[in-house]
Amino acid sequence: MVSTRVVVLVSLVASTAIAIAKFVAYLLTGNVSMLSQTYYSLADVANQGLLLLGFRLSEEGASRKHPFGRGKEQYFFAFVVTVLLFGIAGFASVREGYAALEAGGGAADVNVTINYVVLGVALLFESYALYTSYGGMQTEREAKGFGSMFETFRRSKDPSLLTAATENFVAVVGVGVAILGIYLTDRTGAVVYDAAASIVIGLLLMGLALALAWESRSLIVGEGVTRRERIAIVDAIRAVEDVEELLDLRTMHLGPESVLVACDVRFRPDLETTELERTVDAVEDAIREQVPEADRIYVEAESV
């Protein structure tokens, strides 16, 4: 089983090494697509650092100030990463590409072999990081019973895993675009291809930022469990002996592995106090059986 923390750590190590190599290649050749790749990798490094900070803060547990714990720290930092880092890095890449287009002229007479070497190594690292994050997504898909990777992206409540997996995918695509742009510019002498590659990479980054920010937004404001999980909870509660009616059910994700469940249940009116307590415990057990992440369960008993 591949944990989200392992996915993030692998991405951090790969991105740090790649960022340094890309910047050196840019200094030696001046290709703007290499500079945009550097922007991406630097954003990636900061991204993983913030996600790891979110992990640490989310594990501090409940306190007087945060009675339900700090699980949503991961949602917040994932949002910050997507909006500030990927948005800014994407804009910077588009700006550099546009500036190169405006400058016009032909490509400088330089040996771009180092670009191919750096990007080739980057492709290997990014591909491994993508493979690792794919394993994490596959684990999430199987655990939650999602039908496809697209459904996993749409319904997963683990923004750190989504961010790492999506940015690794975009990184592989971005490296391919950079290689193509540098190759075409080197062959034709027209800087337009290198500049266009930088713009495409920037647009990919901004698209990633928009998609992930939208997913994080829903979790920050208080998203509940999936429709499938809600139906399972409702059926489980109604199946408990001495439960007459489920009057209300509300859920909210407090973190990737923490779910709050509050329900208003009408029990059989002739239950004794001990019987009522035992039935409430049975309702809680039924909820946990359907949603193991449910660690905050509140049952309001209605006996009339």
Q: Would you kindly provide a written description of the structure presented here, covering whatever features stand out?
A:
With 304 residues, the protein is mainly α. The protein folds into 2 domains: 4-220, Alpha-lytic protease prodomain-like (Up-down Bundle); 227-302, Cation efflux protein, cytoplasmic domain (Alpha-Beta Plaits). The protein is built from 9 helices and 3 strands, in the order H-H-H-H-H-H-H-H-E-E-H-E. It has a 3-stranded mixed β-sheet with strand order 1-2-3. A hairpin with a 2-residue loop joins strand 1 and strand 2 (258-267). Helix 1 runs antiparallel to helix 2 and helix 2 (32-58) packs antiparallel against helix 3. The longest helix is centred in the middle third of the chain and has 32 residues, at 113-144. The protein is elongated, with a radius of gyration of 25 Å. The two termini are 48 Å apart. The mean pLDDT is 81.
Give the helices and strands, then pairings.
Blueprint: H1 4-29, H2 32-58, H3 73-103, H4 113-144, H5 149-155, H6 159-188, H7 192-220, H8 227-239, E1 243-255, E2 258-267, H9 273-290, E3 294-302
Parallel strand pairs: 2-3
Antiparallel strand pairs: 1-2
Helix pairs in contact: 1-2, 1-4, 1-6, 2-3, 2-6, 2-7, 3-7, 4-5, 4-6, 6-7, 8-9
